[in-house]
Amino acid sequence: MTELDDQIARNRKELEYHPPGDTGRAMALYSLGISLRKNFLEAYNIADLEEAIALHHLVLDLHPLGHSDRPDFLHDLALCFSSRYNKQGTMADLEEAITLCRAALELYSPAYFGRASTLNNLANNMRRKFLKFGVNSDLDEALSLHRSALDLRPPGHSDRSDSLHNLALCFRSRYDKQGTIADLDEAITLNRAALELRPVGHSGRVNILNNLAISLRNRFLIFSANDDLDEAISLHQSALDLCPLGHSDRWHSLHILAACFNNRYHKLGTIVDLEEAITLSRAALELCSPGHSCRVNNLSDLAVYLWDRFQQFGANDDLDEAIVLHQSVLDLHPPGHSHWSDSLYNLALYFSHRYDKQGTIADLEEAITLGRAALALRPVGHSGHASTLNNLANGLWRKFLKFGANGDLDEAIALHRSALDLRLPGHSYRSDSLQNLALCFSDRYDKQGAIADLEESITLGRAALELRPVGHSGHASTLNNLADDMRRKFLKFGANGDLNEAIALHRSALDLRPPGHSYRSDSLHNLALCFSDRYDKQGATADLEESITLNRAALELRPVGHSDRAWTLSNLGYVMRLKFLKFGANGGLDEAIALHRSALDLRPPGHSDRSESLHHLTVCFSNRYDKQGIIADLEEAITLCRAALVLCSPGHSGRANTLSNLAVYLEDRFQQFRANGDLNVAIALPRSTLDHHITFSASLGDFPLDSDESALDQSNGVPESLDRATTGKENPLTSEDLVGMEAFSDIIINKNLTKEESRSQLTTKFNVLTRYAESMGLNLPACLPPSCSSGVSSISGPMDVDLRECPTQLSNEQPTRLSKPDKIERIKERLLGMLRSSQVFISHGRLPWSTLESDLEKRGLVLVNWPAEVPRKRNKGIYDLNAEHADKLYHAIMHPDEEHRLGFRSLGPAPVDHGTGTTHDANLASSSKRTLDVQDSRPLKRVKFKEPMTRDNFSGAKS
């Protein structure tokens, strides 16, 4: 039993001696009521306070109006109601306390010694009412009352420190509401004055230390002066020393000291401060048992500190614990609670972050569900409406990136637009909304290809950059994302200015990310891509070398285990292969193969980018086969290409090109081993690519087109016929053989051509096929299946010529219907085909006019049947021929008689190539069989170039 318990027992015994009507009963009732209230303030037993209120009511009844002691008893009863309000929060108790204080104040004379105490307590109750409802007039009255009380407590008065302290609290409250710095400074000045009056040993020193520290921390949050925060930490530590284990205020000192260390961590980045914040917060939570009024704040703040540590080190345990803590907060905030929406909002953010880290769809779905629930509780006009719109939009954006549903992205765009409308010019988060909306439009462009989306993304990105000048924390990321969009625009339109701007922006971003910066590898990687693109466009070796250097630097920063290592390996392998194609050095190609193999190892079966690695590796082995002639490389290319084809199911954007490349590799193997199976498949495969371009029936009216499978089945008639015709041939395939096979594989309609242009091209191809079949003693229509054969005549269309019956007439008439550019393109295709078959090096699909004759001589060949009246062009090639010369040259190269056809003839045995001369680059030839490699500029993956969306600060509990 405590001393206070003894006092209560003695007071109860004393009351027994004063029954109703006794003159001493009022004092006995009063003494017992006072001791019970004191016991409540120590033990928080509500029964003690309830009894004290009942006793004080009895005392008041014994002191009617006019009694000299009535104002004191009114004041004491007011204190009891105020205490019960602090415990239970019932507004009726606070209103009763205010009424009783006002009644007592009216009965006190201006000079009465108890007037100052009543002024002080009425002021405290008015401040409590302000904190509940936020009415400024209540706080203004509290300030006025406290000033009056202070005037009655001059220097030397025993209660002066109380008035100084309470007045300081009012000024701090007004600062919290209105943000006037003068109020904060006044609070600090008053607290310092109060602290001087409460030296070490004073019972109220702890409160002054804590409140002065809180005001200094608030000033630090405004001006970031380290001295203010350091002093705040020192004061809180002194307060904690005065609150040993068991002290009722120890949890509070632990809690607010933890907040200070967390602030210093965010300012200075010192991990020891963050660890101290976590330790102190855990200690505070242990003292806040379930049911404690401030347990929610401790749970919420500890979750924030663990989240900070997760961001620093990425430990899943920290994030998991933060989620559990916030779920506990949500459990303590039932629906309807004033902080319910805050709990939903914060928990949604944490699930979103865990999805970013672990990729669990359930977390993303939970984040979206919680975000929607929070938004429902934060309607238009709510201070958190814009931030909730922003973060819900980010969740839907992530869902789009995962599943590709347009509806998710469209909703994200709508939500971001709404958030932007609420963040007018001058709003601190306007740049975030601009940036996030730009990312969404950029992704919609990647998905749907609408130029308007790309332009909108660029416009928004530029607007965001204006609001994020040099020195802004988001300046580098905005530079990066705007640069990515400019690169996209370059890839669409080919304007050098766009790519040059992208390079300049990426360089600026790189300058802001010195060695050690977490995003430096991204800037290196993205800048390398831009230089690679510029090399592809302009062919400057310096750009290629720069791309290689940047890719190597990026790879060093993306060691084994880095999520983006495979991309850097792949891109470095790509540019090393370009270097090989440029200079023919075997070492570059060998390194490219090793890099692509490493990338493939990081993309196991099931990985979305595995087919890309297979493709790059396939092309590299094909290049090495072309250079060195090692059959194992060709076999590897075929194996890898088949594996890539398995991953490119019908409808896949790369399927047609993969089919074409596989056909070329099988054709190469046929030339080596004369295996009819390779030739059959090589000729049949390109036919199965037709459905990836355009259907014949849609483009030509009534010409039938079958599915992949039926087309392959029905096209087998051609390979079988060709097989029968070539079985007895012992010599290698002639250039005419290759022209015939290429004509077959080129029967693909370009969907960008008009109907008449498509008809013209298709007729030309069948013309070549007809002559080729006749040269082998075959009738082409007889080789075709019925469904195709029935449509051959419709190709001639308005010419009213039956292709099956009049191949010679078609041959004579059709060239005149081609335009000059079409004829030049046909000439180029035929010459390139002959050059490839003759193992002559071809750079980027361009005819080597300036060295053509010398290159042929190195192979023991000579150009024959060039029309005498057509000039030989050595620089610009044949593109500047006039229409007459182009027509003559076209007829020469398409001449039905091989003896008179423009082509190559042997001068004798070809010289041996020891590997030091030029090399055959089939992968960059402008043949339709090599489309995938010609157009290969690496998919523009968003995650590789952009940076994460901006999230608004979450509303954690404040101390």
UniProtKB/TrEMBL annotation:
Region of interest (Disordered), residue spans: 709-733, 904-959
Gene3D superfamilies: Tetratricopeptide repeat domain (1.25.40.10)
Domain of life, per lineage: Eukaryota
SUPFAM superfamilies named in the record: HCP-like
Biased composition annotated in UniProt, kind: Polar residues: 916-929
SMART domains, per the entry: TPR
Alphabetical list of InterPro entries matching this protein: TPR-like_helical_dom_sf (IPR011990), TPR_rpt (IPR019734)
Pfam families on file: TPR_10
Composition bias type Basic and acidic residues, residue spans: 930-950
UniProt organism field: Scleroderma citrinum Foug A
Full protein name: CHAT domain-containing protein
Lineage: Eukaryota, Fungi, Dikarya, Basidiomycota, Agaricomycotina
